[in-house]
Amino acid sequence: MDSAAASPWAAVLRLVFGGMATHVVALAVRLRLPDTIGDGERDAAGLAAEFGFQEGPMLRLLRGLAALGVLAEPHPGRFTVTPVGALLRVDAPGSMFPLARMLTDPTMARAWQNLEFSLRTGGPAFDEAFGVDFFGYLAARPELSEMYNAAMSQGSRGVAAVLAGAYDFGRFGTIVDVGGGDGTTLAAILTTHPGPRGVVYDSPSGVATTARTLHAAGLTARCRVETGDFFTGVPAGGDLYLLKSVTHGWDDERAAVILRNCARDAAAHGRILLVEHLLPDTVPAGESPTTYLSDLNLLVNGQGQERTRDDFAGLCAKAGLRIAETGALPATGFHWIEIHPG
Fold first, then answer.
1. Contact (CB, 8 A) for 322 and 338
2. Which residues in the chain belong to E strands, given as ranges?
3. Residue 306 gets which letter from DSSP?
4. pTM for the full predicted model
C-alpha cells in the first residue's frame, strides 16, 4: 500500500472531502447516469447534450466519478461504467439504486445538516427541520415512500438469504413478520422451510407491494398479509414473531411496547426473534463505520438506535423478557437474537 495513501493526513482529506463525493454520486444517481451510459462507452460531449449540460463541466463531473470508482475513462473524454457504478443502475442484478437514491435524497441531507440539534436535545433533527416526523413526511409523499420501501427491501434481500439458512425456522407453525414490509424476508424463510405458514404485518403503506412479492414466490397459499399498528397489537397466535430492523427504529420505551405486544399475543411457548446489528462494547480498530453512521442516522431522522448485547438485555428486561440465545449472520453485519418470556 502506498504509504501516503495510508497516512493520517490522507485519511483526514478523505473524511473532509467525503461530503463532496456524496453530492457527486447523488447527482449521478438522480440523473440515472450509469443507466444512460449502459454497457457501452459514451463521450462527455454526447452525455452533456443529452442532459442539457455544458460539455466542460460535464467532463469534470464524469472524471470525478471515475476518480471515485463509479466510472472508468479508458480513452480521453470517453467513459464506461465500473462494477461499482453498475450497482447504481436501476436494472442491475442486486441493484443498490433504491438505497443510494434514498440516502442521498436532499430531504435526508437537510436533516443531517442539523445534527447538532439532535446532540443537544436528544430529539430528531428531521422533525425540527420539517415540522413532522420521518414517517409522517413519507406518508404525504407517495413517491418518496415508495423509494424508502424499495430501499428497505433491497437491504433485506442479502440478510434474508443468510437468515433463512442460519436459524431453525422449521420448528414453528406460524411465523409473524412484524414490520415485514414487502415480505422479502419472510418469503425467503418460507421458501427455505416448507412447513411453517406466515403472516406479514405492517402499516397499509408498508405492505403496498407485499402481495406481489408473495405471488412471485408462490406463497399466496401459505402466507397472508395483515395491516395494523404494532404499538397497539400484533396478529395473535403466532409461534414466532420476527422483527427485522424494527426495534432499532425506536427508543427503549417504544421498542419495549412492541416486544410486550408480541409476547402478549403469542401462542403458548411463543418466541420472539430480533434481527439487528449487534454493536461490540467498544469500537474495534479498523471497524467499518457503516453501522455507527446508521446509528447516527437513526438519531437524526427518528428516535431509534443501534444497540450492544447489554443494551438489548436491558430492553428485554424492560419488556419482561430475556435473551435466550444469539447468533451471527455471516457477511451481513447482522445477528439474530432469540427472546423468551422473563
1. no
2. 42-43, 71-75, 78-81, 174-178, 197-202, 223-227, 240-244, 271-279, 307-308, 321-329, 334-341
3. -
4. 0.88
- Which pairs from 6-14 meet CB under 8 Å and 24+ separation? none
DSSP bridge pairs for 276: 335
CB 244 within 8 A of CB 201: no
Entry field: residues in the chain: 342
Give 108's contacts (C-beta < 8 A, 6+ positions apart).
102, 301
Query: Which H/E stretch holds residue 299?
Result: helix 290-301
Residue listed under C-alpha cell 446489528: 277
Q: Which helix (H) or strand (E) holds 108?
A: helix 106-112
Would strands 78-81 and 71-75 be described as parallel, antiparallel, or unpaired? Answer: antiparallel
Whether the per-residue pLDDT at 3 is higher than 70: the answer is no
**Integer CA distances (angstroms), 168 to 42, 196, 283, 336, in order:** 50, 11, 31, 11
| Active site amino acids | 248
pLDDT digits (tens, 9 = 90+) for 128-144: 999 999 989 988 988 88
Which bin fits 76, alpha (ψ -120 to 50), beta or left (φ > 0)?
Answer: beta
| Phi, psi at 49, each rounded to 5° | -65, -40
Please name the helix (run of DSSP H) or strand (run of DSSP E) that holds residue 265, with its range, or none.
Answer: helix 252-265
Distances (CA, A) of 137 to 132, 133, 208, 275: 6, 6, 17, 26
